[in-house]
Structures are given as structure tokens and as C-alpha cells.
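Next comes the chain:
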Amino acid sequence: MADYDYGNARLRVMKSRLLTPRELEALSSAGSVPGLIAALTRTVYQKTVEAALTHSSGMRCIDDALKNDLVAVIGKVRGFYDESAGKTTALFLRMYDIHNLKAILRGLSRNAESADILSVLLPVGELDLNLLNQLARLNDPREAVDLLASMSSPFAPSLLNARAEFPGAGTFAMELALDRWYFSEAAKILKNEAEHPDALAAALTLETDIANALTALRFAQSPAERERLSEQLGSGELTRLFIQPSRIPIEAFEGACRQDQVSSAVEALSKTTIAPALRAGLEKYNLSRRLSDLERALKRYRLQWLAGQIARDPLGIGVTLGYVALKVNEVGNLRWIAHGVHLGLPVDSIRAELEIVQ
């Protein structure tokens, strides 16, 4: 594990500089966007906020500062590792490219404003901020796929294949194609690595489990959509909706997918490792009827699992997995605080929605 020694030592120092729960709570009581900007200049975000103030103000200043800080920090992380450690780190960070592309395709399909699309992107993978900005300003998903294809991007073939197989395919088909490609490629790369990190392999299977669970829940909530897709795919082909490699058997997800109630789908997955997260999310879903509550519960489970890898895999990539997850979560918390302050939400309401990892 010598490849990780230097980088992991640096990341432990950087982890000590992450904002504490008390600091996040203090920021949430800033009272106004200018007050929040001033408060951020008294934190580790001072330099990026001051740089952003030279060309922007208000919410735009905060968004630019957070995004630029994240890009700079992850750029450092990339530089800490060489050879096989560098390769596996890049493979992990590519997961964020998939997140960004899915967010862009989803936003373009809904005619969302480019600023709204850009606000949820995490530019820490291979796709740089300039390209993400360009993609987010296009007119529709087809233009985005065509631009990626014109650049011979490795992300393009799976999208082109999905478009050819299902003419007029919606964003779900394209998102599924991206996931299939990424996890399949990642599994191949790890298989060819003589000493591939077990922590990364486990992280990838957790991602597929969560993606598969969300797919099953989506179609349990909307049986009519499931039936339409089943007709398109062919009888008995629902297994094609799920991604491999998955730790949880695909049959379990298919069984959950065939339920006509979200609660029944959660029950169908009651013997899996993600069951506690699903039950926690179901409590909120029963009040809101929003799948986003279940998605958030699953993402909280993932965050806690990744953060725990710092202690479980102290000499390997576990430190990278944990630190990056915690840093991305911190930026997400700060974005939420800024949004809440901008809308004039009560301080307690802002604090209640923070994702705090103990």
C-alpha cells in the first residue's frame, strides 16, 4: 500500500480542516447572503470567496467560490497519487462524471435554466468545468450527446447505443446506459489489477445497489410506467433495468420493481444491507410521497459508509473515498445553507436538513 502513504497523510491533514458541525450551524444563522459571504471569509473558504467577489456577488459569488474550491481541492487529491493508486483514484472520481452527465441530461430534458443545472454539478472528475458549462447551455439531450460524440468522449458510445436501440429514448434510458457502461468498465479495470483495492470494489457495488434500489422504487411508485417499459423491453426482461455487478441479487430488485406500492417494494428488500436506510426513508416518504426522501436516506447511508472507510482502510484508497465524500458533502451543506438563507428560511429549518456525519 506504499502508493497511498503520501497522499493519505496529506488527506488526513485536509480532513482536519473540514468545517465542524458547530461551524455549519453558525453559518446557517448568518441571516442574509451578504452576512453568509462575510462569515465564509472567516473560514477555510476565505481565498476562494475573496477571489469570487472580484467578479460576482450574492448567490453567484457563493456558488462560484464553492465550485472553485472543490475543483482545487480534488485537483490536489489527484496529484497525491501515482501509478496504480492514481489509476484507481481516477476511476473512483469518474463516478462524479456520471453524476454530472445525468444531471445535465435530466435538466436539458426539462428545459431547466443552465444556472439551475450547473448548481447541482460536482466538477471533480474528468469532465472539466468549461465543458460542463458548455453542455449545460445546450438546447436538449441530443445536442449534448452529439457534442460528446464529436469529441470522441469515452462517455458517448453508451449514449449513442441507447439512442439507436430505443429511438426517442427518454433520460431514464440514457442514465441507465451511462451507469451500465461505468460500472462494467470499472469492474473490468479492477479485475485486471493484480492488487485492486477491496474498498473501491465494495464502494462500486454499493453504488449499484443504491441505483438499482432507486429504479425498483421508481417503478413500484408508478406501475403504469413499469408496464409501458415492460412492453417495450419484452415480457420478463425487467432484469435489463438493473446494473451489475451488484452485491444484492438482481432477483431481489426485480421482485421489488414488480410491486405496486413503494412500501411493498421496501418490504421486498427487507433482508438486504440497505434495508435500514430504506425503512428510515419510508417514514418520510409516507408523509411526503416523494421518492427524493428515500433517495436521500440511501445517500446518507452511502455517505456514512464511505466516511467509515477512512478507519477501515487506513493504508489504502479508503482514505480517499472517505475524504472526497466528506468534502463533497460539506459543499452540499454550504449550498443548502446559502439556499436557505437566500429564501429566508428559519434557522432551525436550515439546520434540520444538514447532513452531519458523526
In short: Residues 83-109 form the longest helix (27 residues). The chain has a mean pLDDT of 92. The CA atoms of residues 312 and 318 lie 7 Å apart. The two ends are 27 Å apart (CA to CA).
